[in-house]
Amino acid sequence: MQRIINDPSMVVEDMLKGFAKVHKDIVHVHPDNPRVIISNTAKEKKKVGIVTGGGSGHKPAFIGYAGKNMVDAVAVGEIFSSPTAKSFYDAIVAADQGMGVACLYGNYAGDNMNVKMASMMAEDDDIMVKTVVANDDVASAKKTDSEKRRGVAGEILMWKVGGAKAAQGATLDEVIAASQKAIDHTRSVGVGLGPCTIPANAKPNFKIEEGTMEFGIGHHGEPGIRVEKLASAKEIAKEMHDLIIEDLPFEKGDEVVVLVSGLGATPVMEQYIFFDEIEQLLQADGIVIYKSYVGNYFTSLEMNGITLTMMKVDEELKECIDMEVETMGLTQIGE
Fold first, then answer.
1. Catalytic residue among 185, 219, 220, 241, which?
2. Which tens digit of pLDDT belongs to each residue from 120-140?
3. CA 10: distance to chain centroid?
4. pLDDT confidence of 335, banded at 50, 70, 90?
5. Which of 30, 58, 185, 241 is catalytic?
6. Per the database entry, which stretches of residues form a coiled coil (predicted)?
7. Radius of gyration of the chain (CA)
8. Is there a catalytic annotation at residue 58?
9. 241 is catalytic
10. What residues have CB less than 8 Å from 5, skipping those under 6 apart?
11. Cβ–Cβ under 8 Å, residues 297 and 268
């Protein structure tokens, strides 16, 4: 694997330096912890703080969603590894303004443990922390074991809703309730066509044989539901659509937000081909697309593949989705 890096063991540190310089109009680095990125608007007005965090390698997630009306502070982990409890704690302190902090993150063992430790540290400082754990990946566990499901690209919609709710002046409980509703109404699934390689490793994390695809693959290469012969965009879209539709379930007359994300090596051109197939399927279902996003929103280094995320929306969620936002990963001006 050929890369444009210096020291493979310093990829995250080197990346963060460049990120902060390029996006200095949106974010800055914590003065005492280079693994915490803070929105420049975090304390523009008094509100509930929004914190997230996760492993690196998923750009623009997670740091790319720090900014106006979205995430206030982000804890940054090593490639595909949880941030430390100290980094989560520093992010929580940086985001707190006395109204409490909503920590919105994905369901991974390391993140669960470190957020819990950070929350206990924050409580010692009289900072109220409440959490919502994203578990939108339908392929990662049965619906009856939904608490075991991973959080994937649906986290972006959770951050969008939580950030908007906080910006509206909601209380901590109201922000948590809206964020929980957002992820409860969201389902995602991924398909992998090619593997990725952690920079410090000499070989790919996993294999996907030429001419095949792994349906339901995780963002770190976690095994999917099945390995299949590579299919057309129409066939892939139908299979992903069917799994998501049945799981919530989404029904005729529903309004949905659709988010299609490449996993790092999938051309945006192919993502639009895929979206067109999804739009036709939803139209046939009688499901209305309220808003759609297509692009590299939540990647996995250079993995080839795609994720499909759908969120069923009501008036409250639509109002939050429509709020303007300015981050590196998502900029939206009004409705």
1. 220
2. 999 999 999 999 999 999 999
3. 24
4. low
5. 58
6. none
7. 19
8. yes
9. no
10. 11, 14, 199
11. no
